[in-house]
Amino acid sequence: MRPTPHKTLAASALAVAALAGVSLPVSPAAAVPHAAPLAAACTPAQVVANGGFESSTSPWSQSSTGVITNRAGQSAHGGTNFAWLDGVGSTHTDTLSQSVTIPSGCSSATLSFWLHIDTAETTSSTAYDKLTAKIGTTTLATYSNLDKNTGYVQKSFDVSAFAGQTVNVAFAGTEDSSLQTSFVVDDVGITVPSGADRFGYDGAFSLIGNALPVLAVKDAAGWHLDPYTNNGESFYSLSADFSVALDHPSTLLVPATGTSVDTPGSSGRTITTATASKVRDFAWAAGPFSKISGTSTAGTPVNVYSVSGISSADAQSMLTTAKSAVDAHASRFGAYPYGELDAVIDNNFWFGGMEYPGFVLDLVSTTALTHEIGHQWWYGIVGDDEYNSPWLDEAFTDYSTDLALSKTGTGCWNSVSWASTAEKITNSMAYWDAHSSRYSTVVYGYGKCALHDLRRVLGDSVMAKLLKDFATSHWYGVSTTSEFKAAAQAATSTDLTPFWTQHRVDG
Ligand SMILES: [Zn+2]
To answer: Which residue intervals are annotated with compositional bias (Low complexity) in the record (predicted)?
Structure first.
C-alpha cells in the first residue's frame, strides 16, 4: 500500500458492514458460469446508533442503568464508554438491545462488535456464565467464561438475510451463583461500506480486494491469524493458482488478477475467466471503466482502467508510467511473470494505492503507481509476513521506486529522528497500529533510506546483485529479515553489525 501521508483514519472499529453494488459470483479453481443478478440499490447507512456508547445511552435499552458505563475495572475499546454485562459474581442477568433497520437491496450486511471477557472462573470445561448475541430471534453466538481473553476481539456475523427488516440487535449475559464473569462489549455498528476502498465501491465502480479467502499460514511460529489493519497490510499468504469466472453484465469491465479471457454468457452477459499462477491473492474490480492498453518495451501487456472523472490525458500518463515501471523493476529483480498487468485508477482512493498480484489500485500519481507495481516483486513474487515484517515489502518497494525514478536518496538518513527507543524499521503492524502516525515515516521513509545507505556501504553493483539474487532465491517463496541480513553480510567483507544497529534493523 502507498498510504496517503497524515491521513486520519476514522476509528469505526466495530462496523457492521453491508456491501452493495454488483454481485459477482466467483469460484476459485473452477470456471463455473453462474448467473448473478445485479443487487438493487443499497443505500449506505450506519444503522446502529451510538454503537460506541459514547453519546449517553440512547437508543439502547439496558436492563439496569449501569450496563452502559465508564466505571473502573474495565476499559473501552474506543472512546470512554462501553457496555459491561455481568461481572457481579452472583446469580444475575444483564441485557442490552436496540432496534435497527437494515436497508433493503443490500447484497450483504455484517454485524460486528468488539468483545472482551474476563472471569474469576477457573474451570476449563464448564460454561457457567454466558453471553448471547442475537439479531431478531436468531442467535448469532453464545460466549462464556471459557472464552475469556485479554483485550478485545472483533466478532462479525453475516446478517444479510435481514436486509429490508427492522430487527433487534441484543446481548444478554447471565451469571450463575458464584465467581464473576464480565462480558464487555463496545463499538457496535452496522455500516454499508460506501467508499473508494480496497473492498468497497465508488459510485458505479466496485473494488473487490481481499474478497476471496486465502489459506492462513502455519510455520515454525505457529498459525498466523493476524488482524486486518487499515494502516497497512497483514495479508501473509503463500503462492497459489487461481481460476476465477466472473459472470457479469456485458456493459461492465472487470479488471482482475491474472490473464483474462471473455466468452459470451446468457443474454446481455459476459463471462470473464481469469487464470493466474503462483499468486498470493486474487482481486478484481467491476464497473463501466474507460480502458486503454499498451505493451511495455519488454513485452508485458498493460491495461489502465479509469473511473469516470479521470481525464484521458491522465490515463495515458498512467499507462506510460505503468509500462516503464514494470520494465524498470523487471530489469533489476527478474522478469515480470504474471502475464498482463491491470491498473485501476481512481483519485478517490484514500489510501493512495494498493497492490494485488497483477492488479493495482492507484491515484493518478507517477510515484504511487511505480510503487504499487514494485510490489509485484516485493510481496508478490518475493513474499513476506506483512504483519510482522512490513518493511520487507514497503521499504524494499519504496527503494525500488526511487531507483526506477532515478532518485538516489542522497542524505536522506540525515533527516531521521526516532520518536522513542522502541521505534524500529523492523517493527510489526501491532506496533504501528499503536503508533500509526509514525508508520509511513519510519517503515517507508527510514526503511528506504536504510537501503540507500546499505547501497552506499556495499557499492551500487554489489547492492544490485544482492537484491537480484535475493529475489531469485526467494522467487514465489517467503523472505525474512534475518535472511536478508545474512545475504547482505555475505556480499561484503565489512561487518554490517553496526550498520543494522544504527539503522534499527532487527531480526
Ligand atoms: Zn506499498
So the answer is: 55-64
